[in-house]
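Homework help thread (please don't just give me the answer)

Our assignment gives two proteins as sequence + structure token strings and asks us to describe the second one. The first is just a warm-up. Here they are:
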Amino acid sequence: MQVLFVCVHNAGRSQMAEAIFNALSGGRHHAMSGGTMPGSAVNPQVGPVLAEIGVALGSAAPKPLDPALITAADRTITMGCGVAEACPAGLYITEDWGLDDPAGQPLPVVRAVRDQIAARVKALIDELDREVRAS
């Protein structure tokens, strides 16, 4: 299964979700991410807080949300950043996680957002595994 995580800037929450998902899915599923107005760089706190839980960010960079990303996804999840109004994914959005934006926040807040994302990603992977087994 392909999952697309969408955020406005694709610089924090959606990058964390993509990296955590790909690290935990064991190759059974794949995540991508994109932004409706991509930033110029990933939030500098994202890499270090992911490393704290053993997840590598690698050379991630904000990417624009485009039709190819949307159509490749089996599931599209927004991160609570009001993208519904600005998102070309429109009707394809299947779920919104309603997460706080870590941009400009102190490290403890960024860690809390990371932990919320990790918990939701684990549950999503379990759900996708059940769907695949059932089909």
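The one we have to describe:
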Amino acid sequence: MATYDLVVIGTGPGGYVCAVRASQLGMKVAVVEKNATLGGTCLNVGCMPSKALLHASEMFEEAGHSFAKMGVSVSSPKLDLPAMMNFKQQGIDGNVKGVEFLMKKNKVDVLKGTGKILGTGKVEVSADGKSQTIETKNIVIATGSDIARLKGIEIDEKRIVSSTGALSLDKVPGKLLIVGAGVIGLELGSVWKRLGAEVVVVEFLDRILPGMDGEIAKQFQRILEKQGFAFKLGAKVTAVDTSGKTLKATIEPAAGGAAETLEADVVLVCIGRVPYTDALGLKEAGVALDPRGRVQIDPHFATSVKGVYAIGDVVAGPMLAHKAEDEGVAVAEIIAGQAGHVNYDVIPGVVYTTPEVSSVGKTEEELKQAGVAYTVGKFPFTANGRSKVNQTTDGFVKILADAKTDRVLGVHIIGREAGEMIHEACVLMEFGGSAEDLARTCHAHPTRSEAVKEAALAVGKRAIHM
């Protein structure tokens, strides 16, 4: 019987990073993976393939609409969807092979099969009708999340699709109906809109991007509408008739009222994700779950069963790959007797549309609710030199600082490369920095990041270029 210091179930960003860090700390480590490839949802059917399609579709859009005004004459671009999907697959394959390499490099054993926890110190791995029991001092559950489903609407991944199916459509839908105006819906909607689909987004709430800063969400909605998105907010999809050549979706007001019917070629259901705990044997092993089906953990990621820990989408908190990675590192360090820690106040979020939206820390709504006095500094990209010459001036930077201490509490950006720009705010906030610290830090000219410095200056009402 094989014995380990640590067995990690799941090889998504949380799981494989945890395994690498544990190996660095001198542990004998194995990972258990039920799928044919490593990397979890993120690398195979999530973050990575969607970014490949977002990039490729953006290039298609640029070639068709922006090249001419820059003095670049090209014939009208033609879409070769199979070649674009191949481009996406090459990216997936490269990343998956990268994780395989990391496992070999760090001497982590890869056990293929479904992992089941038999209690403290024992994991059963089953594949092809055979099973083996692995002994281990510690177990980390890193099984991630699965798509949330709408009652009464069957996902077939052909016409009614989840994010997985929406990444592999074999033709551009004439009409795409998206259920849910969260990050995934808006990103995938952007891909197919650029490639020629008519996109309608139905959202139960009265706003897009729940949880993001309200002012940012409103401006972003206006930008998307300018791009051709149509939104039906405060509405819900109650049924989809699949009997005809086109799908017929029944839409009702969230508050109640008369229903309407919308036709679509494809319906994309992306109303969120749920923890994936199937076949793990948690109940039998005595691992406690919370009312939302997430694994309950203490501040050190420990579950109710000794020696069993959990991280990532399967526990509370934002379902983000980088949050899972940080937790993976922290739990490996805790198991090794070190002081592993995750600062949940400084976890950035990014929407990879064009323009991008990024955010870290508190929103205005959260600060108001908590009764925290704050100061706002804003700076638009219309006043940023680099954005002006590139004619990419949509959006702005918004910084929220404590009114008494000037400590930065939240930063929110809409704009090109917002996902890259957010990180100087993350570093500043990690060290408890002030808007003044950021405002007095020299930024290279001309860069879009100067807008971040200007927003910090605007906190003290002394922006230079506005």
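TA reply:
I won't write it for you, but here's a hint about the kind of observation we're looking for: The chain has three domains: 3-146+274-335, 160-271, 349-459.
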